[in-house]
Amino acid sequence: MQSLLQSILADFGCQTGTIHFTGEDGQLKLVAHIGVPDFVLPKISTIPFGKGIAGCAAERKEAVQLCNLQTDTSGVARPDAKATQVSGALAVPLISADGKVRGVLGIGKVVPYEFTAEETAKLKVHAQAIVGTLA
Question: Could you give the 3-state DSSP secondary structure of residue 61?
């Protein structure tokens, strides 16, 4: 997953990324990451549905985007997320054919950035490719 994530980040010109899979306990478990500070890793190693950007994407079964995580006041971004130095962030759920959330793919830039509808659709294609590896 690490090399796949690296390829996705290069495709989008992003500096950070994560892949979480849904664990047996129904929470998101970190399986790959790039550009995430070590001290943040314990905080994102397990994420409940509905918490943070990845958790919201999983709960809603749709893409979640923040143009500037550093100044976000919506409550989606967790306070510790600011420590990542990410500004523009996009997370998409990994949804299997039977409609179950199998995980979340997240990417981020260190500058404020609003991902386009085309970029969101493209990331969803990458997400579906990851789901295909889980069969």
Answer: coil
Q: Are strands 16-22 and 64-66 parallel, antiparallel or unpaired?
A: unpaired
Kind plus residue range of the DSSP H or E element containing 2: helix 2-12
Confidence bin at 100 (pLDDT 50/70/90): very high
Distance CA 109, CA 81 (A): 13
- Structural domain containing residue 53: 2-133
Residues 6+ positions from 129 with CB-CB distance below 8 Å: none
- Spell out where the chain has E strands: 16-22, 28-34, 46-47, 64-66, 88-95, 101-109
CATH number of domain containing 122: 3.30.450.40
25 CB neighbour count, 10 Å cutoff: 9
Number of domains in the chain: 1
Strands 46-47 and 64-66: unpaired
**pLDDT for 98:** 94
Run of H or E including 6? helix 2-12
CA neighbours within 13 Å on the CB side: how many for 96?
Answer: 10
